[in-house]
Specification:
alpha+beta; seven-stranded antiparallel beta sheet; 38% helix
């Protein structure tokens, strides 16, 4: 306002007062508020929940991936089921004579399977066939207990230590796996587990 138009009541505040009022006004300017205690706790809880979720996903994915032994078990059961289908075949060499079955594998495999005669114990030898697990050719020996067929699959093991028969169940079938003298043995049947265990122990002791 020009000096000519100023009111007689107009009074210009001293410089010191103006500076003080300006400083006071700046003190009331909005500032960014620091997070409170409860907000920090909320953030930590959210981070913890995220970590738990990620861990659960990792565990679930790991659990859904079958182990090598689980995959072989499933292949053994699938081989047994295939052999019982009408469109397939149970034996390539049908015979109850171990001296007929054993030499039949010569030239077909890079190993010679042991063929046990367990007829005196109620497990009749029906014959053998060439089968495949994955891309590996294996020997399949077929036995019978009453009306129950037993497939005994064998091939060289990468493990050097012997392992006693271990039972697993898949799709209603009993499966025993053991290792002896560098060879894998897998016995599978719908026979009850106790009798299949007896069969496995007889093969192991043969």
């Amino acid at each position: 306002m020009s000096d000519n138009k100023r009111s007689p009541l107009y009074y210009e505040a001293p410089t010191e007062l103006r500076r003080g009022l300006a400083a006071l006004a700046r003190g009331f300017e909005p500032r960014e508020r620091a997070p409170g205690r409860f907000e920090w706790l909320g953030g930590l809880k959210l981070a913890a929940a995220s970590l738990v979720t990620i861990a659960a996903v990792i565990v679930t994915r790991s659990a859904s991936v079958p182990s090598a032994e689980d995959r072989v078990t499933q292949e053994v059961v699938a081989s047994h089921v295939r052999s019982l289908m009408v469109s397939s075949h149970l034996t390539d060499v049908p015979s109850s004579e171990r001296h007929t079955v054993k030499p039949w594998f010569n030239g077909k495999l890079d190993f010679s399977p042991s063929v046990a005669d367990l007829s005196a114990h109620g497990f009749a030898l029906l014959g053998g066939r060439l089968d495949y697990l994955g891309e590996r050719p294996v020997a399949a020996l077929v036995y019978q207990r009453r009306e129950h067929k037993i497939n005994l699959l064998t091939w060289p093991s990468s493990e050097t230590a012997d392992a006693k028969p271990k039972l697993v169940s898949r799709q209603g079938y009993s499966v025993f796996h053991w290792i002896r003298a560098g060879m894998n043995y897998w016995a599978v049947s719908d026979l009850n587990a106790e009798e299949l265990r007896q069969f496995s122990e007889l093969v192991l002791a043969y």
